[in-house]
Design goal:
The structure holds two protein chains of two kinds. Chain A is built from five helices and five strands, in the order βαβαβαβαβα. By secondary structure, chain A is of the alpha/beta class. Chain B is built from 17 helices and 20 strands. The chains are: A alpha/beta, B alpha+beta.
Chain lengths: ~110, ~600
């Protein structure tokens, strides 16, 4: 898994939580550009992608990652509620959305099935 | 010749003279006796009903109708009885013509009567005609008197000096003076004319001469009660019934008409003054839009640069209306002309030197000075008002924009700050919970870190709340809030003055944000070593001043910070001034009314 978020404390806590639940976190990125680059370099199965990034929106990054035929699964996260984004999640090609406060390995696994 | 001869000769001559005398008398002389027998007929016999010779020796009853005979004999009897002349008038048909005769009967010797008979038909007719004419004259006089006395005009007959002879009832009614010996012989100018106008009236009277045109003079008269009248007088020369040269004064009371005219003149003068004094543009237009000869007022001249000489005769829309508005203006103007109602419209105006203004016009039908219906156009210059309105609209838009930006900033701050920490906290707590059984030590470390995270989240929330509205300002007032601001300011702050009493909440908030923004700007741009703040209350206003010793050069129109402050202050009817000469520091002064 690649974790993409501009807040280091979130990345650290998410990594600890998901690793404790059996995920193998292979990398982290703090913005859209580095996320795309890390994806190419590390070829993860899942990208945990924050919607609000400093340089681009998570939806744009998700579209790019899912549109290049790599077959990567993108799970969008945000501290906002998923209802705020309407159809953007689906249109971006992401597998789903999880509010940050509800993040868990089980929620991600459910979206990947 | 004997004495007897001489006597006979004298008698014969006397008879001859008598005969000549009788022949010379143009009347008919008839001698008849008491019973009516004709004895002799002499004189003018042309009017006899028969030849003289056939009548002598016969009786009056042979020739005259019975009723005439009776009266003739009765009159003769009276003359004989009284031995005096008696007169009888009687009518006879002579050759089919009805004629009137007068017989003067005088007793002669014995029972004889000498009657001198005269045909008085022409005299009688003349007399009748005269009587008829006299009646007519009397009627005419009565009519004239009635007219003279009932006509609503003063008529006064004077002698050639202007002394009163008599005047009509109208003069009596109007002036209160009776037409009697108390005024007869006195001068008109002395009795009736106002002392100030008496000399002019007297001069007019003196100029009246036969063959000249009548004198006309409008002058003030005074009634017996002291009221003033305005009289339009004509004085003419006239010759009276006795051939004397007189003056006749005919006077019309024009007091009301004159007062009405003076009132109209006063009103017109007033309207003229108003039209000249008003700052509104005024002009009169013909129904086809050309500016009428009544012209334009000084305000129009001042604004447009066109005076009567360049404006009259030209259509006003070609003269001053902005090209893009001409069509709409013509439509409104034509509608007002057509309906006779007032129409209002707004249009751009272009002055002679090309300056553009915005004018609110009204087009109102009115009767022009030459009694034709025209349009009065009145324009109010609303350029400044429109500019202010636009400024207010822009200011409102900026306030709304600033509010939106502030909300976005708050949302972002909440999202990036406290919310992220709380998300992390949530994850940490769940992680600690998961580790509690297998790794209690690890769970304790995570909880300790979570506690620190929570403290930071609380601090960020406090800071955020202070940014929304400093609680200290509400609770403890401007002085305490500014002191708190000063302790966190990027440069040393000197607080020179602060009002002891609380100001209205909106004023305190505006003053606080002016100071807060100014200090933030000083920190960002001024490179100052010190800032000085003072807030004082003067003339019902709060005067807020922030000065620094930095680089200056601040422009309130550039950047949203100062512009936002300006909007906030102006929203409270206040003023914000920024003095920031390059190299000499910046001084911001806000004056905010406290009595709203």
């Amino acid at each position: 898994m690649l974790i993409v978020d501009d807040h280091p404390s979130f990345r650290a806590n998410a990594r600890a939580l998901l690793e404790a639940e059996g995920f193998d976190v292979i990398g982290e990125a703090s913005d859209g550009e580095s996320a795309v680059q890390a994806c190419c370099d590390l070829n993860p199965d899942v990208v945990l992608l924050d919607v609000q990034l400093p340089d681009r929106t998570g939806f744009e990054v998700a579209s790019e990652l899912t549109g290049n035929g790599s077959g990567v699964n993108v799970v969008l996260v945000s501290s906002r509620d998923g209802g705020d984004y309407g159809p953007l999640v689906e249109e971006s090609g992401a597998s789903g959305f999880v509010p940050k406060g509800e993040l868990s390995g089980a929620r991600i696994a459910a979206l990947l099935r | 010749m004997t004495f007897e001869d001489l006597r006979h000769e004298a008698l014969r001559r006397s008879e001859a003279r008598l005969q000549a005398l009788l022949d010379a008398i143009p009347d008919l002389m008839i001698r008849f006796d008491r019973d009516g027998t004709y004895i002799d007929i002499a004189g003018n016999t042309s009017g006899l009903v028969r030849p003289r010779d056939q009548m002598i020796g016969r009786n009056v009853s042979d020739f005259l109708p019975t009723h005439v005979v009776e009266r003739v004999l009765a009159c003769a009897e009276r003359a004989i009885a009284s031995q005096s002349t008696h007169t009888l008038e009687y009518e006879l048909d002579v050759d089919g013509d009805r004629r009137l005769f007068e017989a003067r009967m005088t007793p002669s010797s014995g029972d004889e009567i000498v009657s001198i008979v005269r045909d008085i038909t022409p005299a009688h007719r003349l007399e009748r005609e005269l009587a008829e004419r006299l009646r007519e004259v009397q009627h005419e006089q009565a009519f004239t008197r009635t007219v003279v006395n009932t006509a609503p005009i003063v008529l006064m007959l004077c002698d050639d000096r202007g002394a009163i002879i008599r005047f009509n009832d109208t003069a009596e009614r109007l002036t209160g003076h009776a037409d009697d010996e108390r005024v007869w012989g006195r001068l008109v100018s002395e009795v009736f004319v106002h002392p100030d106008d008496a000399e002019a009236f007297g001069a007019s009277m003196a100029r009246v001469k036969p063959g000249r045109l009548p004198e006309e003079i409008e002058c003030r008269w005074r009634t017996k009660a002291g009221d003033e009248l305005i009289m339009d007088c004509t004085i003419n020369h006239v010759v009276d019934g006795q051939g004397l040269h007189r003056r006749i004064v005919a006077g019309l009371d024009v007091t009301e008409r004159e007062q009405g005219r003076q009132e109209i003149v006063r009103q017109r003068d007033l309207l003229g003054v108003v039209a000249r004094a008003t700052p509104n543009l005024l002009f009169v237009a013909e129904p086809d839009g050309r500016i009428a000869w009544e012209g334009v007022n000084p305000a129009f001249e001042d604004m447009t640069g066109h005076d009567d000489s360049t404006a009259c005769g030209r259509s006003f829309w070609e003269l001053v209306i902005a090209p893009e508005d001409v069509e709409a203006v013509r439509a409104e103007f034509d509608a007002s002309v057509g309906s006779g109602e007032v129409h209002y419209f707004s249009a751009g105006l272009v002055t002679q030197n090309g300056e553009r203004r915005t004018i609110d016009w009204s087009s109102r039908p009115l009767v022009g000075l030459d009694s034709r219906t025209k349009q009065l156009l009145c324009g109010i210059d609303v350029t400044e008002r429109e500019r202010h309105l636009q400024e207010i609209r822009a200011s409102r838009a900026r306030l709304v924009e600033a509010q939106d930006a502030e909300r976005r900033r708050l949302e972002r701050n909440l999202h990036d700050g406290a919310q992220q920490r709380l998300v992390s906290l949530s994850l940490a707590l769940r992680l600690a919970q998961a580790k509690l059984g297998a790794d209690p030590e690890g769970a304790r470390d995570i909880l300790a870190a979570a506690g620190d995270e929570l403290s930071l989240a609380l601090a960020e929330l406090r800071e955020l709340a202070r940014g929304i509205h400093p609680a200290m300002l509400t609770d403890r007032g401007l002085g305490a809030a500014v002191e708190s601001l000063a302790t966190r300011a990027p440069v040393p702050v000197e607080i020179a003055a602060m009002p002891e009493e609380r100001l209205p909440a909106a004023v305190e908030a505006a003053a606080f944000y002016v100071i807060s923004e100014a200090l933030a700007n000083i920190g960002k741009y001024a490179k100052a070593s010190v800032a000085r703040i003072s807030v004082a209350r003067a003339d019902g206003r709060a005067v807020v001043e922030i000065a620094d010793d930095g680089v200056g050069g601040a422009d309130p129109m550039r950047g949203s910070g100062l512009r936002g402050l300006l909007d906030r202050v102006e929203a409270l009817d206040g003023r914000l001034e920024v003095e920031s000469p390059v190299g000499e520091g910046t001084r911001i002064v806000a004056q905010i009314p406290c009595s709203r």
